[in-house]
Write a structure and sequence with these properties.
136 residues; single chain; 3-stranded antiparallel beta sheet; alpha+beta
């Protein structure tokens, strides 16, 4: 009985294969870290791109000032033209979103997805930008 216990102890004390297991675990951990860094940076870049698109669409909508407002020197946005201009910009950029006109303020929200490189799931990306007409 004592000999069997000694054999079992000797078998579990053996270091054969430990380097392989360590290498596999470290490789998986390294790939996970690289994946998080790459996909995290991609998500940040997608957020920045969404904000840039929203801001540009808001600027395009702000250019839809009614003709009479230019003559009078007032700030009046042609709401239907502004919404159409912003939606046209969003469509040209290949993203979805919404446009809201309130007085002399235009708010554009961009909704899109970021397809991750390592992770098999898309991340939702949303950005909002506002343009406001001012007179000087």
């Amino acid at each position: 009985m004592n000999t069997m216990v000694q054999r079992l102890r000797a078998k579990f004390r053996d270091d054969k294969g430990v380097a392989t297991i360590y290498f596999v675990i470290m490789t998986v951990a390294f790939l996970a870290i690289v994946g998080l860094v790459v996909d995290g940076a991609g998500k940040v870049q997608a957020n920045q791109q969404a904000y840039t698109t929203a801001a540009s669409a808001a600027r395009a909508a702000a250019n839809a000032v009614s003709g009479q407002a230019i003559i009078d020197g007032t700030t009046a946005i042609d709401s239907s033209r502004a919404v159409s201009a912003a939606n046209g910009y969003l469509a040209a950029a290949g993203v979805g979103g919404s446009v809201a006109v309130s007085g002399d303020r235009i708010t554009v929200t961009v909704d899109t997805d970021y397809s991750a490189t390592f992770l098999p799931v898309p991340f939702p990306v949303q950005a909002t930008a506002t343009a406001e007409l001012i007179t000087q």
